[in-house]
Every structure is written in C-alpha cells, then in structure tokens.
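Annex B. Sample input.
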Amino acid sequence: MDFKFSRFLLLLGFSLSLLANAQVPARDGETSQNAAKKRLPTGVLLVKGAWASGSDSTTPIPEGGGILNHLYRNDYFGLTYGLPQDWTQKYAGPPPSDSGAYVLAQIRPADSSPGGVRGSILISAQDLFFTLTQADSALALINYTKDHLSADDKVERPPTEVHIANHSFVRFDYFSPVAELHWYVLATQIRCHVVQFVFTSRDTDLLNRLIQQMNTMKLPAEADLHGATADDCPVCLKDYASGENVIEREDPVFTERAFNPVPVRIIIDTQGKVRHIHFLSAFPSQAKSITDALQQWRFRTYLRDGKPAEVETGILFGRPPQTHTPPARAH
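Annex B, continued. Sample output.
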C-alpha cells in the first residue's frame, strides 16, 4: 500500500471516528437522541453508504480483529501481534473498500509515551480476489507499490524475501526526502490476502527494532509468500463460482437502483452449499437480495487429496470498477 493511499485511509478513519463520537445539542422540547437523528453538522455531506457485513456472527471475517490487553488479534488471519510498549490505537480504521483494501489496525506511541518517540504502525490487508492492481501474490503487490512510488520517493531496499517469526515475508523500504520519513513494509500472504505491516518514522533505528519485535508474533502455518492453505481452513480459489463448478444458481433481484460494485466472499461447504457470506461493501437491500439468491446456489464438491473440502472464493455483483480506455486516434 503506497503512502498516498495509506494517508487517505488514515484520514478517513479519523473523520469517521470524530463523526461517530460527535455530540449534537438538543433544541427546546427535543431529547438529545431525537436531535441527533434530525440535526446534521454544517459543512458535512452525509451519505448512507455501502458497508461490510457477514451472514453470521460466529464465522471470523477479515475486519473482525481488534486490540485487547495490548495484543492485536485477528481470528480470520490467525494472527496475534503484541504491540510495542507504550504504543496504542487511538482511532479505528474505515470499513473495507470495494476493491478489498482493509485497514486492520493503526498503532502509534501513546500520548504519555516517554522519550518523544514518533512513528506509526499500519496493519493492512489486500484481498487478491478484488484488487485493481492485477497482483496475484504478496511479491507482485509490493513490486506494484515500488513501481508506482511518487517521483520524490527513493527506494532504500528493493523487495527482498526475509523470514519473520519463522515465516516468509517480502520486505520493501523507501524514503521521502521531502517529508524526511522512512517506510519499512513487510508483507506475507494468508487466505488469498496480502497482509502488510507498514512501519513509518524518521528514526531508522526505531523501525529496525519494531521489525525485530515482529519475531514474537504468532502466524498461521500457511502464512508465506506462496499462498499455501492450512488443513483446517477452506481452500482459497479465485473464480471458483463460475463455469461448470456451479450446478444451480439464482440471480439476485435488486429492489433499488444502485451502480456500485458489490464484492462478496463466500465459503462453500463440503456438500456444495454456501455456508457463509461476507460482503466487503454492500447496501442493506443488496446484501439481502444477494443472500437470498446465494442460498439457492449449488456447487460441485471440491476434492483436496481425494477428500471433500470447503472452498473460499469471491464473486463480484453489480457494476464492476471502471477502467480508463484511451480514445482511439484518428487516422
């Protein structure tokens, strides 16, 4: 994830947090609750937007991780990361984008941290089913980041395979002479997502210490640059919900007109039925229509080593993201 996009997500998360916690004064004769529903802040455009959701509350989803007792834990990715001493998360990130970009955690020194430590840690993920970069691996995504740096940024370390906590990562370091900031990026692949740790500071000794501390975190067995699948996780297969893999299908009927892409991850059980639906970004009416339809889909059973296995795959409903096509030149 490049600096400009990371900065956008951080600012968006900050704005959403402020908005969610805003207190609206009540007018005479109104309760504060009713006033909050009726009165809008000036100079702000509020739009009821698409949001992430899951079909049940027990199956882990990528954005379902959180920080408790100084540990970031994410059951979907099988990841546990201990925060550095005197570091904390002040603001939660925004919901996933419709291209599968997640801000999982934003960590920085606490206000009471001694010594004036300055830096940040961004834990993010990119869904490889829906990415707009055409990247199909952690290495490809980091190479894309390197190739699309700002002209003012300088590569300090090209993408290089390293081992962290006994798992393979790709490391990429770059520097902005204008901002006098360094970014050290560590990325690996888990369940068809690229999970990234982005460390930012002017202090390179601090950044190296933070990377060294990553060796204490816990990762699932399949976390590596090659996208292996653990025996206790669904097999992650892109485009499985197509062709002859689909035995029965029912198209969703939308009751409202909307022109947004609706990326959906599903888990197919060993009987070929959809057992879990995860909407990365959908309006409530879209989520209901798609859920009603997917419950009627039937798939061929996937065999792993000759035995039926669950499959996790992605489907894009609605309008796909638009790509720019240069106009044809006149002859």
